[in-house]
From TrEMBL, chain A:
<keyword id="KW-0812">Transmembrane</keyword>
<feature type="domain" description="ABC transmembrane type-1">
    <location>
        <begin position="97"/>
        <end position="294"/>
    </location>
</feature>
<keyword id="KW-0813">Transport</keyword>
<comment type="similarity">
    <text>Belongs to the binding-protein-dependent transport system permease family.</text>
</comment>
<dbReference type="Pfam" id="PF00528">
    <property type="entry name" value="BPD_transp_1"/>
</dbReference>
<keyword id="KW-0472">Membrane</keyword>
<feature type="transmembrane region" description="Helical">
    <location>
        <begin position="101"/>
        <end position="120"/>
    </location>
</feature>
<feature type="transmembrane region" description="Helical">
    <location>
        <begin position="218"/>
        <end position="240"/>
    </location>
</feature>
<keyword id="KW-1003">Cell membrane</keyword>
<keyword id="KW-1133">Transmembrane helix</keyword>
<feature type="transmembrane region" description="Helical">
    <location>
        <begin position="275"/>
        <end position="297"/>
    </location>
</feature>
<protein>
    <submittedName>
        <fullName>ABC transporter permease</fullName>
    </submittedName>
</protein>
<feature type="transmembrane region" description="Helical">
    <location>
        <begin position="176"/>
        <end position="197"/>
    </location>
</feature>
<feature type="transmembrane region" description="Helical">
    <location>
        <begin position="16"/>
        <end position="41"/>
    </location>
</feature>
<dbReference type="InterPro" id="IPR035906">
    <property type="entry name" value="MetI-like_sf"/>
</dbReference>
<dbReference type="InterPro" id="IPR000515">
    <property type="entry name" value="MetI-like"/>
</dbReference>
<feature type="transmembrane region" description="Helical">
    <location>
        <begin position="132"/>
        <end position="156"/>
    </location>
</feature>
């Protein structure tokens, strides 16, 4: 934004002050995320920059906290033979990461499949009760997570209790956590896919039909390729939601279903060690990758739909 | 379709001879069914995994059978004698019979807990009395009172009358900082026990404060993003979106690292000599910490709707105002600001809704005075006070649903955007 030539000195001053304010706000947004990265290489168990780090002396830095991620919980960290298999089987953070990916994957698959189907229905012009249904489907995003977690906990303690049958419990099971995370991820899929479909040219469907394609062929060969970027960003949103979720895990999961956020929660509550910062750094790198993917997908989607600019 | 056409033409029909009107209606119904059919699997899923659990929780906030399930004799006595009847020997006999039953079914703890909600400190009465209930001899009134004079407390009998039915509004009464009075009515709880209403108000106040700060911070940068050329704006937008995509726990951890006593900011200030080593600022594990971290976490939710509204505001309006003699402040106040109102409304409502129900951040960095309503729900969940937690959750849910309805009316959920 250029300053107009007729601006008075006061306006000029304000303009530069404004730019400074904006810079400060951007620093407020981004600095906390960046500051943990160098600190995760701290050689000392402190949460602040040591003198050696500020001098950029190599002895101030180490990978010990990354190593700690692998060795915590190992049966025998000193052994040479079978070190990696020990890490894979026993290290607490590795277990948590495996759980996070398993739960995230299935929750994403379920949320994306069901959500995309529903978004297709919701985008049809003659969808009845559209507003009400949409409000229900989006509500898991709006209702406070503690309420969802508490309600789900009661429900999962006796899932068939509503119809008066006893069929075991869903608490402390993978299925329970996956189902809860699916519910939480659905609004994101619905929002992104309906947004993509709003720019979708419905005449393409009629064109496909007039050329003899049955509904299934139309979906897989015409609709899906065009809305795929939106579906993938919805899926990524659902995955991140599950990957970052801790409250439902706190209430529903048992000791076998500890995820990365749950492990971090323990770490922050009990003994906060720089090992948390190394996990945090890895997670930031993952989120940068996800953000880049979503941005690229959005641009591709805009291009496919012929929307120029943003 | 004009019914009063002067010359009635032959009825329009489809190729196979059906009336066109009926055929069209059938086709429309079919396509409606198809659309509904696509949504149905998800709707069913959400109803089962979300609506039913919340409905169940609602029911639980009105239902607690801890006392009623093991007090059949008292139930009968309460049914026969209206409120205000002085408990007679028959009442005490019923009480002793129920205490004996509680001992047999090991339910004295449950029953005592239920009474304890409405009359704090009553639990131990039941657990200790149940133990010796079998050996008590009539007259029961004297026997029980000899054991503990509190059995004659009229408020205890009011509490038992209320707990004798599993369906109760007692938990909402507690959540409103009220208690049962000796005459069966309600009165305000003693001052030391009034926590819930104050917390509700504090939560709303803090959420409003956080929303206000977010708006103050988001407005300038959204404006900057909207006026910069597209390529630069997209680059800066990444600075907003990256926090949005970064794990909540990561961001909370970062702030702990930055703000704690031995953290980066305090160390830097000590190094600069701005504060002494013993004068380190308390910026986390209190209300300040909750506010700072929540503003950081919720800021993108404010920036994005503002930005999407601001970038379509034509700059020519402001230029026209200036050319007609308006000062830059007048131009901003009368021309620009009104056009950004939809964005402000959408962002502020969304941030407020999310802030009111926030749990994780206050739990991790809130300390004692930075707690919000959600944390109280979690506290009761951890203490296994299910019904109490459910009642508080229902009250919070009601607040959020009102805001959600407002959001839908003012903004429309269709306009909810993510990045």
């Amino acid at each position: 934004m250029a300053l107009p030539t007729y601006a008075s000195p006061l306006e000029r001053l304000w303009h530069y002050a404004y730019l400074v304010i904006c810079t400060l706000i951007f620093i407020f947004l981004i600095a906390p995320i960046l500051v943990i990265m160098p600190l995760s290489f701290n050689a000392e168990p402190y949460f602040t920059f040591t003198e050696a780090m500020l001098r950029l002396a190599p002895e101030g830095f180490s990978l010990r906290w990354y190593e700690a991620l692998l060795t915590t919980g190992m049966m025998n960290p000193e052994a040479v033979a079978g070190w990696w298999s020990d890490v894979w089987a026993n290290a607490a953070w590795v277990k948590a990461a495996k759980n996070s990916f398993i739960i995230g994957f299935w929750a994403t698959v379920l949320a994306t499949t069901l959500g995309t189907l529903a978004a297709l229905g919701l985008s049809r012009p003659d969808m009845p009760y559209r507003r009400a249904i949409m409000a229900i489907l989006i509500s898991p995003m709006i209702v406070p997570i503690i309420i969802i977690a508490a309600g789900t906990f009661f429900f999962y303690s006796a899932p068939c209790g509503v119809i008066g049958v006893d069929c075991g419990r869903l608490t402390s099971t993978y299925s329970g956590v996956i189902l809860a995370h699916t519910t939480l991820g659905i609004p994101f899929v619905i929002i992104t896919v309906t947004a993509t479909l709003s720019g979708f040219d419905q005449s393409l469907v009629r064109a496909a039909a007039s050329l003899g394609a049955n509904p299934r062929a139309t979906f897989f060969r015409v609709i899906l390729p065009l809305i795929l970027p939106g579906v993938i960003s919805g899926a990524l949103f659902a995955f991140v939601t599950s990957f970052d979720e801790v409250v439902a895990v706190l209430f529903i999961a048992g000791p076998e279903q500890q995820t990365i956020p749950r492990q971090m929660w323990n770490g922050i509550r009990e003994q906060i060690s720089p090992a948390i910062l190394s996990v945090a750094t890895i997670l930031v790198v993952i989120s940068i990758a996800l953000l880049a993917t979503v941005e690229l997908l959005r641009r591709r989607s805009d291009r496919l739909r012929g929307v120029t600019g943003r | 379709m004009t019914p009063a056409a002067p010359i009635t033409p032959a009825m329009l029909t489809t190729a196979d001879g059906r009336p066109l009107k009926a055929a069209l209606a059938a086709a429309q119904a079919r396509s409606k069914r198809r659309a509904l059919f696509l949504v149905l699997p998800l709707l069913l899923f959400v109803v089962i995994s979300f609506v039913i659990p919340i409905g169940q929780m609602l029911q639980r906030s009105f239902y607690h059978d801890g006392f009623s399930k093991s007090a059949p004799a008292l139930q009968a006595w309460f049914a026969e004698n209206p409120l205000g009847t002085e408990p007679d020997e028959a009442a005490y006999a019923a009480l002793v019979a129920d205490l004996a039953l509680m001992q047999e079914t090991r339910a004295a703890g449950d029953a005592g807990t239920r009474i304890n909600y409405t009359l704090p400190g009553a639990r131990s009465l039941y657990t200790s009395a149940a133990r010796g209930a079998k050996k008590l001899e009539p007259p029961f009134k004297e026997a029980l009172l000899a054991e503990d004079a509190k059995w004659a407390d009229p408020r205890l009998w009011v509490a038992m009358r209320s707990a004798a039915s599993p369906w109760t509004a007692d938990f909402y009464m507690i959540a409103a900082d009220l208690q049962l009075a000796a005459d069966g009515g309600v009165e305000r709880a003693p001052e030391t026990q009034r926590v819930y209403v104050a917390l509700y108000i504090k939560t709303i106040f803090l959420a409003a404060l956080i929303t206000g700060i977010c708006l103050l911070l988001a407005f300038p940068i959204a404006h900057l993003l909207a006026t910069l050329p597209m390529a630069k704006a997209n680059l800066l937008l990444i600075l907003v979106l990256l926090p949005f995509w970064t794990s909540l726990l990561v961001r909370t951890t970062s702030w702990i690292v930055l703000l704690q006593d031995q953290g980066v900011i305090n160390s830097f200030l000590v190094y600069l000599g701005a504060i002494g080593d013993d004068g380190r600022l308390r910026m986390i594990y209190n209300q300040t910490g909750t506010i700072i971290v929540m503003v950081h976490i919720l800021l993108p939710f404010m920036v994005l709707p503002l930005y999407s509204v601001m970038r379509v505001i034509p700059p020519s309006y402001a230029r026209a105002a200036r050319s007609l003699g308006a000062t830059s402040w007048t131009t901003f106040r009368r021309i620009y600001l009104p056009q950004t109102l939809p964005g402000i409304g959408a962002g502020a409502l969304l941030v407020f809704i999310l802030a009111v129900g926030y749990y994780i951040t206050p739990a991790l960095v809130g300390g004692a005075d930075g707690m919000l309503y959600s944390n109280m729900i979690s506290f009761h969940m951890n203490k296994a006070n299910w019904s109490m937690a459910a009642a508080l959750a229902t009250l919070l849910l009601l607040g959020v649903l009102v805001l959600y309805w407002l959001y839908d009316r003012l903004v429309g959920i269709d306009n909810l955007k993510l990045g």
